[in-house]
Write a structure and sequence with these properties.
The protein contains three helices and four strands; from the N terminus they run H-H-H-E-E-E-E. It is of the alpha+beta class and 87 residues long. A hairpin with a 4-residue loop joins strand 2 and strand 3.
Length: 87
Amino acid sequence: MELFRDSFFAPALVNCELALWLRSETKGKKVLKASEESLPLDIDAIADNIVTVSEVMATGFIRAIGLNPVTLYPSVALVLAAKMSRC
């Protein structure tokens, strides 16, 4: 979460269980939880994005991917900008 200058790194392949754990370890987890309780946001969609990105990374064609920012909506986590570097 940019507000907290937070990021995380994980090896590809990330499954849903690990993605949910990574999401829960962010510095902004309290903000995410409060947002989920007060707004109809799908914070589990963040885990879906993490799994999808890890599948792309596992192909071996991409060395690194940075997603910033990611905006939450009621049924999706939308990646507004991404940076990728090839192998």
